[in-house]
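Late entry, written up from scratch paper. The run itself happened at the end of the previous shift, but nothing got recorded in the book at the time, so transcribing now.
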Amino acid sequence: MRIEPFEVAIPDDVLADLGARVSNARLPNAIAGAGWEQGTDLEYLEELSAYWSERFDWREHEARLNALDQWTTEIDGQRIYFIHQRSGRSEAMPLLLAHGWPGSVLEFIDTIDPFVNPSADQLAFDLVVPALPGYGFSGPTSQAGWHPRRIAEAFIELMAGLGYERFGVQGGDWGSVVAANMADLAPEHVAGLHLNFLAGPRPDPDEVAALAPAHQAALATREHWQERETGYQAIQGTKPQTVGYALEDSPVGLAAWIVEKFRAWSDCDGDVERSFSKDQLLANITLYWVTKTATSSARLYHEMRRAGVGALPQAPVVVPTAVAHYPAEIARASRAWAEHRYHVTHWVDMPRGGHFAAMEVPDLFVSDVREFFTSTR
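Output as recorded:
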């Protein structure tokens, strides 16, 4: 496997074009008083766009990425970008962190130093943080079939190519499905699986009826989310190319598509900036824009629909599994349900945080991940 160093260097003309498009965006009207009820709030989007065009500096975020060790390789015909940050300690544990949609490797930016350079009495990690195929600097996908299980196979190959015989994996959103597949495909190499999102088929009605009331309530929240918050899944899962034309042509449209999820899926009580700064939000959105991956990232939903259960772990996952249960997670799971499919050895109900835990509450995220993998050692 050939690995090449990578440096982020977005051309000036790309950023100038982005600024012009943001400044000249044509926005729709909104019903007075609708707020976020029908989607992204117009007033907030105008405020975010003004900040984007007048104050946001992509170069600051570019420099932060370039302070890390970044690489690219090719696996199964697809370019894979990844951060590979070593701790320098001989006893450090290799750990792969997998993101989802509409996130990116930037979700983990505030966790890298605490993982790699902890205090002397804490477990250190050698981190591998890849961009999913079709996301960020991994670039658009150019062939069909990049579903979560195929991505898992590629990431297993990546870890082997880096010389890691045994390692931990962590994931949220799509990253949780990829990480779980890695544990299913290579249990002899995966020392532990840490998840902050559980995906999978709903238990059958008889199984649900037998669950304790608290577990039934957890599943009920999942049903509510499925009913009210999954319109984007239907669109991206069926016609990603169609919505892609709009997302690739309008940065403000892309921002509206993404920021609504960061608000709805975080522990912010309706105020997205209680959980994320404008700079955090815009760095992630800008990454999608400058890499032209809005469409290819959405395509993962279509690939998942095509693959169906074949893209999920094919048997109960036997490696030690941790679940961090954040209160604002979009689809809360029942431990009893999880234990049918995973070897759960660590379950924590977190005091705050939501779907983008590493970005929203990096302190809690790092502490819990470290606690679990310390126990697996």
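The beta strands are 3-5, 70-75, 78-85, 93-98, 125-130, 167-171, 190-195, 317-325, 342-349.
(Scratch paper discarded after transcription.)
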